[in-house]
Design brief:
Length: 278
Amino acid sequence: MSQIDKRKSDAAQNLDPAPAMVLVGPQLGENIGTAARAMLNFGLTEMHIVAPRDGWPNPKAVSSSAGADSVIANAVIHATTEEAIEGKTLVLATTARPRDMTKTVITPHEAARQLREHIAQGGKPAILFGRERTGLKNDEVALADVVVSVPLNPGFTSLNLAQAVLLMGYEWYQAADQTPAVDLPLNGTLLAEKQEILGFFEHLEGQLDEAGFLRPIEKRPVMVRNLRNIFHRSTLTEQEIRTLRGMVTSLTKHAYWRAKAEFEGRDFDADGPGKKKP
C-alpha cells in the first residue's frame, strides 16, 4: 500500500461517534461521491442512501469521491426514508424552503451543538438531505424531530447536495475543534526577545543618524517612534532580527565603499575594488 493510499485508509479510522448522513433520492453518482468526500473531510463516515435514481453500486460515485472510497463502500442502501432512520434516536431534516408544519427550526451551528450533546448522551442521530432538484418532500420532513435551515441570501438559497453535506459537516467538526484561531509556524526559529528587537532599533537608528535621516533634531523622537511602530506591528523572530541587522550592515558598508571609491577616483564595484577612473 502506498503512503497516499495508507493516509486515505487511515482517514476513516479511530474517529469519534458522529451523526449519520442520509441522502434521500440522490440523482447522480457524482453527487453521492462528492458528498462522501465532504463527509470524510469532517470525520463523518456513516452514509445511508435512499432510492438512488441511477441505481447502486455506481462507479461514478467512487471516481468523484477523491479517495473517500471507504464511505462509498460502506454506504447502506434503503428503499424508503423510514427504513433509513430505523434505530436512530434523533433526526434532523435540512431544507431551504418554509414548510406548512409546526416544527422547531435551527441553524447548522445550533444543530451541531445539539448533535454533540445528543451523542454524548448515547444517542444515535441522523441528518436528512433531499434531492438535488426538489429537496425533501413534506412527508419526509415530517419524519424529523427538528428542521435545519441555513441562513442564506434570500434571493438565492440553492445549495447542491455536496455543499449541504459539507456545510453541516463543517459545523459538526468545528463544534469540537480546538485549533487556535491564529497560528504562527516558527519553522525552527524562536520569537525575538525584546532586547534583541531593541538592539536592532538602536543599530538602525544609529545608522540613520549618521546618514542624516532623523532630522530636524526636534522631530527625531516622533520619527523614531513611528519607525519602531512599523516593526512592532510584526511578530519578529530571532532569524528575522538577524536578517534585518544584516541588511542595515550591508547597506552601510555599501555606502562606505561607494563613497571611498568616489573619493579615490575609482569606479564603484560592489563585488571588488573597482578600476581606476581614467
